[in-house]
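In the laboratory, one determines a bound structure by crystallizing the protein with its ligand and collecting diffraction data. In a computational setting the workflow is compressed into a single prediction: the sequence and the ligand go in, and a structural description comes out. We illustrate the idea with cytidine-5'-triphosphate.
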Amino acid sequence: MLKGKKIILGITGSIAAYKSASLIRLLVKEGADVRVIITPFGIEFITPLTLSTLSGHPVLSDFFERDNGDWNSHVDMGLWADMLLIAPATANTMAKMARGICDNLLLTTYLSARCPIVIAPAMDMDMFRHPATLKNIEILKSYGNQIIEPATGELASGLEGKGRMEEPEKILEWIKEFFKRKGRFSGKKILITAGPTFEKIDPVRYIGNFSSGKMGIALANKLIEEGAEVKLVAGPIDSSTLHKGVKHIPVVSATEMHEACLKIFPEMDIAIMNAAVSDFRPLEQADNKIKRSTEELELRLVPNPDIAASLGAAKKENQLLLGFALETDEGMTAALAKKKKKNFDMIILNSLQDKGAGFGGDTNMITIVGKDNKSQKFELKSKTEVASDIIDAIFAIFED
Ligand code: CTP
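The predicted complex, in structure-token form:
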């Protein structure tokens, strides 16, 4: 399964480093070519002799080979690898990675690497849940790095909690799944709309909604990881967690979003309409701030273009169009009607009746209605996991 895959295993100074021995054995058994880079603290926890015997290659730690006056090129290593897996990754190493500090060979290799980076943290529960560590993990994710979440259980400190490095067997499964998915969408051009639209009332006020754009970002990031070329046309959102490979086209109003989408759509293979578009905009936008008054104020609204319906009308045989339906009730009838009206190949229903679904939060609960109008309901999941389910469903259409 991993035959010929070149993997750098970075080991840092954690008690979980003892698991690295079995991890190397499992990777090598699957056919991977494993090279180990260990930090100076890592060596305190597991001997390089064990690691070099299992990997079949010398273990690298120093910038310099003192015996023969040579140096270890982190650039060459970073370019050689198909994956840099840092397991276990301590809070200290992750903090340095988040800030670009590179005072050892593993960190310089990390900064030079162009391959996917996978991080399996290991630490005490209080260290793991400290805002500084959580913030660093967010930063690392925003750089496109992947995190294999630590498990919950007994820790070296004797405490029980989240922080145990995931077991080598689980890490292996994760890596196999990663290589299986990678490249599934290579060559595919995908447009995603996300976030709210803001419709100006006057220079300082607007009509908007609570959409955060997180679902669209999760979809964009996952699709990039799977090899797609992604353009994200998004209303005002926090784009700090957006993968740097995504082409972000920021817009403000529905009219701007409509124009941007119409321009891009003809060259796309897939379009995913995830934005919460304002259905109306003020007929007039005041040039100056509207003054407070004791009189009633009437705002006249006019309908905005239906972006999804415009793309649905322009859709060619070889293009796929997906939409979302956010409903405040159970919503299946409305979702089916929207699918038909907008010429969607697939619609993803989320109902605000389901706790944890919809705007703002980090979770969502969806029902996917496919080409044949058959529906599949999923449980409450993180938006990243939901993105995977949606992407699997899209991929299934291609496989058909
Ligand atoms: N959509 C769009 N342009 C609009 C309105 C909606 O592209 N002007 C897209 C959304 O991105 C979503 C789908 O259409 O994929 C359905 O959006 P939704 O807000 O649920 O439906 P509406 O068509 O706005 O209908 P209603 O507000 O009556 O539920």
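The CA atoms of residues 20 and 336 lie 50 Å apart. Keep in mind that any predicted model is a hypothesis to be tested, not a measurement.
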